[in-house]
Design brief:
- The chain is α+β, with helices and mostly antiparallel strands.
- Helices cover 41% and strands 26% of the residues.
- It contains six helices and ten strands.
- β6 (202-210) and β7 (213-222) form a beta hairpin.
- It starts with 8 loop residues before the first helix and ends with a strand.
- This is DUF2914 domain-containing protein.
- Pfam families: DUF2914.
- Residues 202-260 form the DUF2914 domain.
- It comes from hydrothermal vent metagenome.
Length: 266
């Protein structure tokens, strides 16, 4: 297993978790929730899962015959690394929960002083367990992702979009290829290339939307009336389905939208 060159223990943990679950025959859907909540950790998990698949196909899995001393040393390193990573994650999670609980406790205390005596009396009769449950529910609600509204209409604009294509790379300010609307999941780096004409100098944006979330927004300061701009995103096979990439004007109104399907449509 080739561990990626990163000093971030969370990314290392996600990579090892993906590698281990792949060796156990599990799918990316088995991803732990602590990894699922972080976009970059999900990417490292997917990379580990895919590397394990490659190692197995090339006969380089853990079942290969190796020196028992090397196995013992490597196992000890894995156990120590996993324990350190788990401790760091647990510590960060507990610290985050404590801060959230304190934040909402302050809100509840402020509400107690501002509400009527009857409302204050009702809150004061809560037991310690009921108060803890209330704080836990508030913290969970704060962490839950709010889905985006449906796609908003595209507004009319004097900005002219001469060309807008998806490509796997850029060379000499030109796309090296033009990808169809359905993009296979072996494409790991995707670029949205646009050629635009503007009547004045202004700022435009590329915004990537997937699964009711904005994953990336890239600003561009247009210095010429005709400009070629592009933005790039690293893809993962866990992100299969419909994507929408939007062009926004300097007021962040949508003036153009282009969709694509990554892998198999869900």
């Amino acid at each position: 297993m080739d561990i990626p060159e990163t000093d971030n223990i969370h990314f290392q943990y996600a990579f090892k978790a993906g590698y281990r679950l792949a060796l156990e025959g599990k799918t990316p859907a088995s991803m732990p929730s602590v990894i699922r909540r972080d976009l970059e950790m999900r990417d490292y998990f997917q990379r580990g899962w895919e590397q394990a698949q490659q190692d197995v196909s090339q006969g380089l899995s853990y079942n290969a015959q190796t020196c028992w001393k090397c196995r013992f040393i490597w196992g000890a390193v894995m156990i120590l690394g996993g324990a350190a990573t788990a401790y760091s994650i647990i510590y960060s999670y507990e610290k985050e929960q404590t801060e959230l609980a304190q934040h909402y406790q302050k809100k509840i205390d402020a509400a107690n002083t501002q509400n009527t005596p009857q409302a204050s009396s009702n809150l004061s009769i809560l037991s310690n367990q009921e108060r803890k449950d209330l704080l836990a529910n508030l913290a969970e609600e704060a962490q839950r992702l709010k889905p985006l509204p449906p796609l908003t209409p595209v507004v009319k604009s004097s900005i002219k979009i001469n060309r807008a294509v998806f490509t796997s790379n850029i060379n000499n300010q030109q796309p090296i290829d033009v990808l169809a609307e359905t993009i296979p999941k072996y494409i790991r780096t995707l670029t949205f290339f646009t050629d635009v004409n503007t009547e004045k100098l202004e700022t435009l944006y590329h915004r990537w939307r997937f699964n009711n979330q904005y994953l990336k927004t890239v600003p561009f300061k247009i210095n010429n009336k005709q400009s070629k701009i592009w933005s790039t995103i690293k893809m993962s096979s866990a992100w299969q389905g419909r994507w929408d990439v939007e062009i926004l004007n300097n007021k962040q109104k949508i003036i153009y939208r282009k969709k694509f399907i990554y892998g198999v449509q869900k």
